[in-house]
Amino acid sequence: MSKDQSASQSLCLDPNGGLPRLLEIMARLRDRETGCPWDIEQTYESIVPYTIEEAYEVADAIALGDMAELEGELGDLLLQVVYYTQMGAEDGHFTFETVTKKIADKMIHRHPHVFGEESRDKSAAQQTADWEKIKAAERAAKGQTKARTLDGVAGNLPALTRAVKLQKRAARVGFDWPETTQVLDKITEEAGELVEAVDTLPRDKQVEEFGDLMFVMANLARHLDIDPEEALRAANRKFTRRFEFIEDALEDAGKTPHDSDLAEMDGLWNAAKVAERAAG
């Protein structure tokens, strides 16, 4: 083993090696001659699903209030950044150091009220408006002179999250219902159009009307200051919890859902609701 290889091995095996250790581990995993075949084969595109999955696992740990789990999930998410930057370094595009410098510079530039001479005496709404002005100036500096209101809203965001972000952008230029009651009226209208589509229109129109209803539901969430993704995740957890109650109750009776019927399972569902209320 050469001197460089010995130093690399020592760093990789050092439990107190910190971030340099993680960066060296990734470099070793991607080494074309001595690394891991699976890691060597990965591309920017191939690890995108893992990145998205890890971000959601961070969100799940936070929702559960499990700090030990969150610690591990944050490490998994950090690994994704290290993975991309290692590939970027191999291709000559960027490195972990240039990525961290760029985001640090951006944070300094976008917070003149903290790191500069501007006053901190402003509301969160004013800070958001100032943030958008700074971003617009940054786009102009890059030659992006034809800035559109909806520019920069990532296309691969979860659909509900993206809907809210698009609506927030439009609302900043006045394209928004001023009253929540108007959104509720629109939901009623869209629900009626979906019912009509199901009864009379082809499949593609049914899908379109369903999408319209979901879009307005996202708008209602925005007006009520509700994160629709988190609300739906909570509903998913509640459904899972109550359905598992049904399965457990049936198992105690020597049965499975296949041996039951809707009436029995619906009764157990209501019992699960009662049990939840009693538990506080």
From TrEMBL:
Residues 42-115, 183-242 form the NTP pyrophosphohydrolase MazG-like domain. Its EC number is 3.6.1.8. It catalyses: ATP + H2O = AMP + diphosphate + H(+). GO terms for molecular function: ATP diphosphatase activity. One of its GO terms (biological process) is dUTP catabolic process. Pfam families: MazG. Signal peptide: none annotated. Belongs to the nucleoside triphosphate pyrophosphohydrolase family. This is Nucleoside triphosphate pyrophosphohydrolase. It comes from Neptunicoccus cionae. The lineage of its organism: Bacteria, Pseudomonadati, Pseudomonadota, Alphaproteobacteria, Rhodobacterales.
